[in-house]
Each structure stands twice: as C-alpha cells, then as structure tokens.
Specification:
The chain is α/β, with parallel strands linked by helices and 354 residues long. The protein is 34% helix and 19% strand. The protein is built from eleven helices and 14 strands. It has a ten-stranded mixed beta sheet with strand order 3-4-5-6-9-10-11-12-13-14. Strands 1-2 form a two-stranded parallel ribbon. It has a two-stranded antiparallel ribbon with strand order 7-8. Helix 1 crosses helix 2, helix 6 runs parallel beside helix 8 and helix 9 runs parallel beside helix 10. 42% of the residues are buried. The structure holds S-adenosyl-L-homocysteine and iron/sulfur cluster. The site of iron/sulfur cluster has 12 residues, from loops.
Length: 354
C-alpha cells in the first residue's frame, strides 16, 4: 500500500529536518523548504526554482503543500472583508475570513479569522456552525493552510501578509487541542509566519480542563472566552457546555489562567435583544467579573436563520457599555466587518449546504 503523502504546511522546523533526512536530502534543504512554504507562499513544488527538477519530482511523489481548494470568495463592498469557502481533500468545507484594519499607529493590520473543525459539537443556540454538529477535527496542516492560502491570495494583489490571527471561525479550538496548538506555534515561529503571539487570539466557549492546560503552555497569546451571559440559567440556554462547566468553574479557571500567564482575558459578549442586553444583565456581568484582569468585547449578534435572536438596539448597547464602564470593567465594542457578506461564522457554509 502506498504511504500517505506528508503535508508540509503543518510541519515544525524540527519535523521538516526529519523529513528532509528521511528522503535522503542534505540538511540545508529544510530551511529552503520552510522559506518556500511559509514565507514565499508556494502552492506548487514547481515554483521552487532553487531545487533541482529531480528533487521537485521526488517531493511531488511523497509530499503535498496545498490541501485547500478555494470554492467561493465574497468581498465586502463596505470594508473589503474577504470571506472564503475552502474545500478539504475529503470535500468537506470550512470558512476563513480576511479583515483589514487601518492600524492606530502606522502599519496596516491584516487579520485572518480561521476555523479549527468542520462543524462544531457544542451546539450554541445562536451559532450557525453549531446547527450542523461536528463532522471532524481539522489537522494542523489544514489549520495552517488557511493562513498560507490567505497569504497567497493577498500576495497576488501586493497586500499582506497576515499579521494578526483570530481563531474564531468554525469549531471549538480547545476541542481540537493538539492540532490547534501546533498551528499556533507555526503561526508564531521565526521559520513560520512570524505572527507575534500577542497578535494571535484563541476564542473558546469555555472548556475548563483545556483552559487550565493552556495556562501551563507559557504562551503569550490572547485568550478570549465566549461568555454571552452573566448567570448560569441564561448561559445554560445559550451555550449548553455551561451545564458541564458552570460559571463558577469557568471564572476560577480564568483566574488561574491569569495567574499563570500574567495575561488579561477577553470576554466576548454578543448582545441579543431582550435576551442578555438589559441593565440588570450588565450589572450582573460587572459583579461576575469584578477584580478580574479582563476586558469585555461587546458584539451585536449577527442573526442566523432558524433562530429567533435579534440584535440589541443601539440604545441598549450604549447603556450596557456605560454600566460596565461605571463599574470599572474595561469594555469596547467590536468593530463590525463584512456585514454585507454574512461574515459571521458558519453562515456561508450553511447556505451552500441548504
Ligand atoms: N468555538 C469558539 C470559537 C468560534 S466562535 C467560541 O465559541 O468561542 C467565535 C465567536 O463567534 C464566539 O464568541 C461565538 O460566540 C461568536 N458567534 C457565534 N455565532 C455568532 C453570531 N451569530 N453572532 C455573533 N457572534 C457569534
Ligand atoms: Fe461551536 Fe463556538 Fe459556534 Fe458554540 S459559538 S457552536 S462553540 S463554534
């Protein structure tokens, strides 16, 4: 039986060195291959002009450098946000998004929002991805390939590379722990995409054991917790995993994370009209987070088909923010991107499936 080809965009430098040794090539080839795949955005071995034709043929037989197929790309007329639907080798589809921000200082911030699973098992009631259940975890190569492919697209128009990664696409990253962590290392490492750890955000619905494990990894990444509710009764309805890891446990885990890493935590709070957006909710949230090194990010919900959730009104959003500020909780409102192309996670894929 033929061995499965090795996906190169998913290898750490040490693994690339092993691979090069295994195929009987000299050591320096490892660095050359790293440059081609992570820095020069190669999607075909034929582009690797400093490798001999024989070596390129050999690589073609035993390795791959591109396992995503671009099935659809929509571009926002409002802010240039680009949303991609990628097909994997087994034809399942995932989404990735590129967002552009004029940076506060000078250099442009280019953000990739990427997926870690096909679907998601968590079943949050407001989320399009959660509606379809989990199909499978992505491999580290499939996670890395999203950023690689986005860099390739950007390079074609003299833009990029990606310098900010948010793991907020489809899937629960901490339910695919090893592959996600490996991908984060590749984003960050000097032979990889060189995205600063502080420019990598991992968003989770709150898997307590994995948060505690992540705390010990000594990473400087941003941890974002999808909170969305200030008490267990409401959070149980919105985010079913809260029944397993209720708020008291989640906040304890956050405290431990802050203690171990010295990093502040971001709490995401999607405002849904009449569900979690009252002044009472804001006060309860402020009490829950009191004394914690954190920041709250308010996000008006993106209504999803087959759900009854509606965006909170501007008046409610402003009031909610004001109460948190009064109580001394750092808070901001997330800039909305790609409103005209349904850039909220899972929506494009669901449309293609139905
Ligand atoms: N599974 C992880 C990461 C992917 S979801 C998590 O839940 O954190 C990324 C973010 O999008 C989460 O904060 C999630 O709550 C939010 N989200 C999902 N559906 C949304 C919607 N329809 N409108 C606004 N935010 C949504
Ligand atoms: Fe999964 Fe996150 Fe969607 Fe919940 S919000 S179903 S955890 S992707």
């Amino acid at each position: 039986m033929r061995e499965k080809k090795i996906a190169l965009k998913g290898l750490l430098f040490s693994e690339m060195q092993h691979f090069v040794k295994d195929i009987g090539e000299p050591k320096f080839r490892a660095q050359q291959l790293m440059d081609w795949i992570y820095k020069k955005n190669a999607v075909d071995f034929e582009e690797m002009t400093n490798l001999s034709k024989t070596l390129r043929e050999k690589l073609n037989k035993c390795a791959t450098i591109n396992d995503l197929q671009n099935k659809n790309c929509s571009v926002s007329k409002i802010d240039g946000t680009m949303k991609f639907l990628f097909a994997l080798e087994d034809h399942h589809t995932i989404e990735s998004v590129i967002m552009f921000h004029p940076d506060r200082v000078s250099a442009k911030r280019v953000t990739a929002c990427i997926s870690t699973q096909v679907g998601c098992a968590m079943g949050c009631s407001f989320c399009a991805t959660g509606k379809s259940g989990l199909v499978r975890n992505l491999t580290s190569s499939e996670i890395v390939n999203q950023v690689a492919t986005l860099n390739h697209v950007l390079a074609a128009s003299n833009e990029g590379p990606i310098n900010n990664v948010v793991i907020m696409g489809m899937g629960e990253p901490l339910a695919n722990y090893e592959s996600t962590l490996k991908a984060i290392h590749i984003f960050n490492m000097k032979e990889g995409f060189q995205v600063g750890a502080r420019h990598i955000t991992l968003s989770t619905c709150g898997l307590v054991p994995q948060i505690l494990r992540l705390a010990k990894e000594e990473l400087q990444i941003v941890l974002a917790i999808s909170l969305h509710a200030p008490n267990d009764t409401l959070r149980n309805q919105l985010i079913p995993i809260n029944r397993k890891y209720p708020l008291a446990q989640l906040i304890d885990a956050c405290q431990q994370y802050i203690h171990d890493t010295g990093r502040r935590i971001t709490f995401e709070y999607s405002l849904m009209s009449g569900v979690n957006d009252t002044s009472h909710d804001a006060k309860e949230l402020a009490a829950l987070l009191k004394g914690l090194l954190c920041h709250v990010n308010l996000i008006p919900i993106n209504p999803v088909e087959d759900t009854n959730y509606k965006r909170a009104t501007e008046v409610h959003i402003a009031k909610f923010k004001e109460i948190l500020e009064e109580k001394g909780i750092p808070v901001s409102r997330r800039e909305e991107k790609g409103a005209d192309i349904e850039a909220a996670c899972g929506q494009l894929r669901r449309r293609q499936m139905t």
